[in-house]
Amino acid sequence: MEKSSGNLEKKEHEGVVIKDPEMVISPLKYTSSQSNCSDLRHAFKFYNETGRDYMLSRIVREGFQTVEWNEDKVEFEKRCMQLGKSILGPLSESILSVKNGQRLYERQGSG
Fold first, then answer.
1. Residue 65: inside a domain, yes or no?
2. Which residues have a Cβ under 8 Å from the Cβ of 31 and sit 6 or more positions away?
3. Sign of the alpha-carbon torsion through 48, 12, 30, 73
4. How distant, in Å, are the alpha carbons of 13, 16, 97 from that of 9?
5. Number of structural domains, the chain?
6. CA–CA–CA angle 5, 80, 9 (5° rounding)
7. Which of 4, 36, 43, 79 is in Cβ range 3.0-4.6 Å of 58 for a Cys bridge?
8. Domain enclosing residue 95, as ranges
9. Quick check: is 37 in a domain?
10. Is 106 a domain residue?
11. How far is 66 from 80, CA to CA, in rounded Å?
12. pLDDT digit string (tens) for 50-98?
């Protein structure tokens, strides 16, 4: 697949799903890096509530994309920083909140 997630991200779309009309081949899902990182930010904020498969699949997608798009060192480093911040940022904030006696919760409609 061509490196086209930039357009998807600008339009704030998650990605595309390609399905076989006869359902012989499993659907292929390509998501933007922005969507993967957004999902991970939420998952790691509530790290005890989100399944490992959910989190790992998004991290693995990032690995495949960097190879499929033949990213250069600069693009790869940018992806690493974005991915790392998506994981460690909300995780460390949540841990600090719990350490300070706060409860983790999600407000209705906050995503």
1. yes
2. 5, 14, 15, 58, 61
3. negative
4. 6, 12, 30
5. 1
6. 20
7. 36
8. 5-99
9. yes
10. no
11. 10
12. 899 999 999 999 999 999 999 999 999 999 999 999 999 999 999 999 9
